């Protein structure tokens, strides 16, 4: 039985800030952000968007009425939760018009949440092969203005539809994983902005990748030459390149060149959006499929997922015949190209407004063209609108 990804959708805001201009405003050389981090643009999320609306905007692009009727499980991976009790999955399922005869819940483990959801989906589909599973990875990355982590902010959502006999990617059966209690990144309950030990977190990422990748190739007998691409969770795109070099430095020149070329295709969208936390790996997959010129049906892709705190996993999948339709779709590239640039001052104003959405507020939805928006908070209840 083949189980894997049948469809992928992506959404972010219609606003961005230019990273070179942000660097200059912070008295930094632009190369520190453009090359040192590998980031060109950063999504700026307005007050009218949260993880629920971002997720619904991503899902609406891919789901047909037939898909919605076949979904039996909705899993929402996020570390930007909107309620300490009620799951974002329930809000999203209702807004999307899904059946009430489903399971819907939220899952959290830093940037690993969507991968955890996909692992659960694989088990569910084994027992329910006629159903489909909708997994979200949606987040708004916040470290604070003029902080060391500011340049690795961003936001958006991926919606991943999983099924038996998928059209895009069929997962290989083996996965390897590692969990370890470390304090490299965390967000206390009384904070809307994350805390991070940057150098420690980067080294932990590389250590986790080394361990799970080494374990994977040992257990499967595969080598770097068996992968047509390796993709990564990308808090900033240079991080994935550092991990890739741990593989390519031991590979043949031909394999190293090919994997590096495919990595460049995989990071194109991420470098123009910023950090998606839970959605980052799957935006990288989407970027790879739509920007690579070499992949074909039967190509094997290795995926590394990492969530601080920490959890890591390495797994792989084989491209199916239907992936070419997604590869030829220019919707995401067009959407990113049509976004509106905001100045650094405007970005700072929008950022501060996002931290101060309070009960009783009505939000300026007329400025937001997205189909799903947050209109405000009344009686401590979030108010959503589908246009």
From TrEMBL:
Keywords linked to the UniProt accession: Transferase
Transmembrane segments: none
Domain Hydroxymethylglutaryl-coenzyme A synthase C-terminal: 176-244, 250-351
Keyword NAD: no
Chain ranges of the Hydroxymethylglutaryl-coenzyme A synthase N-terminal domain: 3-163
Chain segments annotated as coiled-coil in the UniProt record: none
CDD domains according to UniProt: init_cond_enzymes
UniProt cross-references to Pfam families, sorted A to Z: HMG_CoA_synt_C (PF08540), HMG_CoA_synt_N (PF01154)
Family per record: Belongs to the thiolase-like superfamily. HMG-CoA synthase family.
Name this protein carries in UniProt: Hydroxymethylglutaryl-CoA synthase
